[in-house]
Amino acid sequence: MFTVSINEVNSLCGLLIITSLLVIETKKARWSAIFYSLQSLVLVLIFLSLAVLMQANQLYLWAASAFVTKAVLVPLILYRALSRVEEADMPKNAMSPVAAILIAAASVAVSFFVVDQIQIAAVAPFKPALAISIAHFFFGVLCILTQRNIYKQILGVCLMENGAHLTLALLAYNAPELVEVGVATDALFAVLLMVILGGQIYRTLHTLDSSDLTTLKG
Amino acid sequence: MYSTYLIWLLLIPLILSLLAFATRWLGKATRRVVEILHLVCVTLVLVLSLVVVQGVLVQGVVVALGNWLHVDSLGAIFVLIVGVVGFLVGLYSISYIRNDMETGEFDNAKMSLYYGLFSLFLFTMLLVVTANNIIMMWVAVEATTLGSAFLVGIYGKRSSLEAAWKYIVICTVGIGFGLYGTILVYADAVNVLQEPRLAALWTEIVKNAQALDPTLMKMAFVFVLIGFGTKAGLFPMHGWLPDAYTEAPSPVTAMLSAVLLNCSLLVIFRFATIVNGCIGPAFTQTLFLVFGTLSLGAGVFFMFMQRDIKRLLAYSSMENAGLIILAFGIGGPAGIAAGLLQLLNQSLVKALMFCTSGNILIKYRSWNLDKVRGMLQIAPVTSLLLICGMLALVGAPPFNIFISKLLIISAGLQVGYVWLMILCLLLLMVVFTAFFRVLGSAVFGDHPEGIAKGDVNILALAPLAILLVIILVLGIYIPPQLITLLNGATGVAMTGDPASQVAGASFWQNSPALPTGLTQAKAFFAPLANLLPWK
Questions:
Q1: Beta bridge partners of A209
Q2: Is B70 helix (H, G, I), strand (E, B) or coil?
């Protein structure tokens, strides 16, 4: 029988942060989509491990839907969109690798503090995983706030959603299936719409730099 | 019986939106078919929403789909807003979009997209106000962003794409915070209820709120307020609001301000009821007072700086959201009832004002006060609508907002927030100045050369005239059915108990502030009311 330990789940969660850094810091835009797919595969593995550990059959369904939407569809949409963009038009990374690592570390530290306040017996063994999921969410938010490249901002939303999805799996895996379908569908459509809008901005404004979007003020 | 109507209320706009999308392939028939579909959609939504509200008045609560859909008195007020405002703004849309077709802003494909998204937007908002499952509530709020983002950027210009981008990014991030709040409440509810399916239902969580973990609930509420407050445009999460409101087609702005903003507030109020049941109302009231005052103050400050009419109205929405939240911060039956009445009133006035701003654009091709002058000579009926709308927004009698603002101030004074209420009154005086500066310049000045005299067509004026009549009537007379709904809604917002509405505990009548406020209001404009022919 396939067995999984809590430590393995917590370690897999650590991998999420590393893959996030790769998504944000890679210089070749299309590689961001590939690294995001890799990260989503880690998320799928975490869902499968949690399904075994918590004997929660619903999480197998979650893993399947995360594989289809996050590991395949979203990266494919992003890859196709990024393929249409000239590398020269890509704004430079606003965050240096050192800054990104420091921000990721700060997010983890703050999240550990927050999670320490949460007293839910069922998730007590998974507190490190929970902290990392929240940190991942905040890292995504910070990525959106600091990146000028609108495609990196979309990836920031993706990272944020992966963090939220993991929190959902840890705290609400037993919610009705329709709820998970709704959350996953929203996430997929959010990325799809943002990619379409990003493409429109690129074609109309000939820029991918969000700091050029300054017509509206006051 | 009412359950079936509730399901159809959701299904109709969803089905008709899909049909509207498909009309783009009909060639020359597109325009006629999509307009008929749109008209059928908004009319059926109006009729079904009135039937569901009637159901709430008769039996207290209307539920469907195993309690996943639940409309109590609180939800009924929002269903009513979606139905009435959706119908009138939908009607106005037809004339507005025809004008866009004539000017070449829209083609057949864009028109199909617009009407399809409009119906989809109605569906998502109806899902927000009828959802009982808190996670589905979140899904529905996120869906409103996705449904409306393309409407904001539909013109495809530099500025509209920029506004749509800010809207979708900021709101998606904000709603992410809302998801965390929702998950925390759900996880704790599972702990308490031991039944995952029940733990997602707002009605069940509220019943067991006392057993929830206080620290978790405080944390969850902060996330919820930041998350859904972003959608409501509360300060300091309002960055997207002025841009999206200005760049969207005017009927869409009317829906964003008059309906969507309220939907987001409803979700916050639903979560506040849970948290209040767990730790008492002090925590949520403090946060409401802080965010309410900040939003009111910031909204007023930005309003005073504007020379663009639509942007001024956008900040006025922020100011009004602040005032509603402030009323909930004052709390008690008087504060909450006054806040709900203000919410209903401002919805109607904002729908009127944003549609009127659409008429201004049709005539002047601008909202800038340097260009919009002498409206009284160019478009007298639109001018009259603008004057009445602005008088209503500043809270002048005999318009509806006069009563709700008076009730909010009265409720605040009653619980001892004297300085805060004085500050509110001072801020509302600044609103008065900001609007009258606009009126003086836009309505009464000399009109610029090259603008043809003559108002917009009757189809663009009739829905606004109906809105104005409703605004005036609600300023003079609040129907007993609406008072029953407000009583029940106040009870639900305070206790979460739907029975409080059926028992008719009448917070409205038991609250000293409300009759006092109403008496004052009635005395103020009694001479005018006596002049009415039907008096």
A1: A149
A2: strand
CB B69 within 8 A of CB B132: yes
What pLDDT, on the 0 to 100 scale, is given for residue A171? 84
SS percent in chain A: helix, strand, coil, step 5: 80, 0, 20
- What 3 state SS string does B108-148 have? HHHHHHHHHHHHHHHHHHHHHHHECEHHHHHHHHHHHHHHH
**pLDDT for res B523:** 58
**Chain A hits for B243, Cβ within 8 Å:** 216
Domain span at residue A201 reads: 6-212
Question: How far apart are alpha carbons A107 and A24 in whole angstroms?
Answer: 15
Q: State residue B525's pLDDT score.
A: 47
CB within 8 Å: B163 and A216 = yes
Q: Which residues contact B55 (CB under 8 A, 6 or more apart)?
A: B1, B2, B5, B6, B62, B71
A63 within a domain of the structure (yes/no): yes
The C-alpha torsion from B385 through B388 and B390 to B391, rounded to 10°, is 180
Rounded to whole angstroms, the Cα distance separating B484 from B490 reads 10
Q: Is residue A201 part of a domain?
A: yes
| End-to-end CA, chain A | 63
> How many CA atoms lie within 13 Å of B106's alpha carbon, on the beta-carbon side?
25
CA distance B47 to B55: 12
Confidence at residue B321, expressed as pLDDT on a 0 to 100 scale? 96
Q: Does A174 touch chain B (CB under 8 A)?
A: yes
Q: Give the separation between CA A29 and CA A82, rounded to whole angstroms.
A: 7
Q: Are the CB atoms for B356 and B382 separated by under 8 Å?
A: yes
What is residue B502's predicted lDDT score, i.e. its pLDDT?
43
Per-residue pLDDT reduced to its tens digit, B82-125: 999 999 999 999 999 999 999 999 999 999 999 999 999 999 99
Distance of alpha carbon A109 from alpha carbon B222, whole angstroms? 20
Q: Residue B312: what residue type?
A: L
Which tens digits make up the pLDDT trace of A95-140?
777 887 888 888 888 888 888 877 777 777 788 888 888 888 988 9
Q: Which two tokens stand for residue B389?
A: 């709308």
Distance from CA of B163 to the nearest CA of A (A): 8
Q: Would you state the pLDDT for residue B75? A: 96
CB proximity list for B314: less than 8 A, separation 6 or greater? B241, B242, B245, B246, B253, B257
pLDDT value at residue A127: 84
What pLDDT is stored for residue B533 in this prediction? 45
Our CA-based measurement puts residue A174 at a distance from the nearest CA of chain B, in whole angstroms, of 6
A1 in a domain, yes or no?
no
Single-letter residue type at B110? K
Residues of chain B falling short of pLDDT 70? 500-535
Determine the distance in angstroms separating the CA of B142 from the nearest CA of chain A, rounded to an integer. 7
Of all residues in chain B, the percent with pLDDT exceeding 70 is 93
pLDDT of B445 reads 77
* Interface test with chain B among A147, A197, A202, by most B beta carbons within 10 Å: A197
A194 touches B: beta carbon within 8 Å:
yes
- The domain segmentation of chain B, as residue ranges, is 281-535
Residue A3 DSSP SS3: coil
Specify the pLDDT at position A195: 93
Cβ A216–B146 below 8 Å, yes or no? Answer: no
CA B306 to chain centre: 22
The total domain count for chain A is 1
Instruction: For the full predicted model, state whether its pTM sits above 0.90.
Output: yes
Query: Residue B28 and residue B284: Cα distance in Å, rounded?
Result: 55
Q: Is the peptide bond before B398 cis (omega within 30 degrees of 0)?
A: yes
Hey, is B365 helix, strand or coil?
coil
Q: Can you list the residues of chain A whose pLDDT is less than 50?
A: none
Does residue A51 lie in a domain region?
yes
